[in-house]
Predict the 3D structure of the following.
Amino acid sequence: FAVRPPRGRATADFAVLLPTVSYMAYANDHSSVDADEAEMMMGRLITLQPADLFIDEHRELGLGLYDTHSDGSGVCYSSRLRPIVNMRPKYSAWVGSGLWQFNADTHLFDWLEEKGFTYDVITDEDLHFEGADLLKPYRAVVSGTHPEYQSTAMWDGMRGYLDTGGRLMYMGGDGWYWRVAFHESAAGVIEVRRAEDGIRTWLAEPGEYHHSFTGEYGGLWRRLGRPPNVLVGTGFSAQGFDASSYYTRQHDSTDPRAAFIFEGIGADDRIGDFGLIGGGAAGLELDRADPLLGTPPNTLVLASSGNHTDLYLVVCEEVAVTTPNLTGSQSPLVRADMTFHERAGGGAVFATSSIAWCGSLSHNGYDNNVSRITENVLRRFLDAEPFV
């Protein structure tokens, strides 16, 4: 559970926006035992945890949005109003190195506590129902590692915040990807319709592309004319689950606008060639900048990852014709771009573009270049001086 500040009043200069809608999407997911391709995706045998076996044996706890019903139809609805066995401390997920969603986000909280920052915690559900007014009191907002699922009200709320001087640290990857709908009267219940395109374990049938809760057309925000690049500068480009890699600095990192980000960082340093999630800061799901998808023209591409394995593959919405060169060692689309751009009203956005980033924060007693960059950005974002 999340303990939020008193309604309508901030108690800190910044807030962590907990991606609870994404937690709900993966709640009690059965892919570790049901998905035929799970072991091929991971490049290893799946190690089942006691919680996985419990979920498998107790289907009455409900399914996740990656599951299918016994008739093969996809699961469209999820709820937090039930025991959620796979979103708990010490649970090791079947995905990647086992640090996924809630457990990956605990690395961020651990780092904030270690560095002595005072912060508020707010949730996706709060943002859905309260909009930009929830974010307005905060000088900066810090995302979780995987804010994948967003309602229209959440998307609009973040856009309104950023357009009026807000500052966002996007600390993950594959964010702002799927549109979801909340039930209007039953709080804690969401719906997804996997229409047309995207990385998905089931396909919505023709005639089932609209949300039953709201009547909205479902699917990827990208296909709905709102790519994540428009908000955060980058968008989902590739995924892989065996090993993570590192970033190397790009030419834009020498721009004076980015000097504060790289204070104390060497020009030739490998950024994040270490970490608890696959051994590196660039891993699992990766986002990249693309002006054709709405990356703002003033965006600086500060660093990019490389040397990914061939279990990393370009996401399907990027592929018009299937070719053999879509893997980590062959495709330039398999990368995470660390970016920064200023926004109207003195605001700014910094994007790590990788789910694995936060898993590198604690390396070497929190004394490392991932930790240093994150602290440099957060301290500047908390400074009242506007970005121009």
User: Anything to note?
Assistant: The CA atoms of residues 195 and 207 lie 10 Å apart.
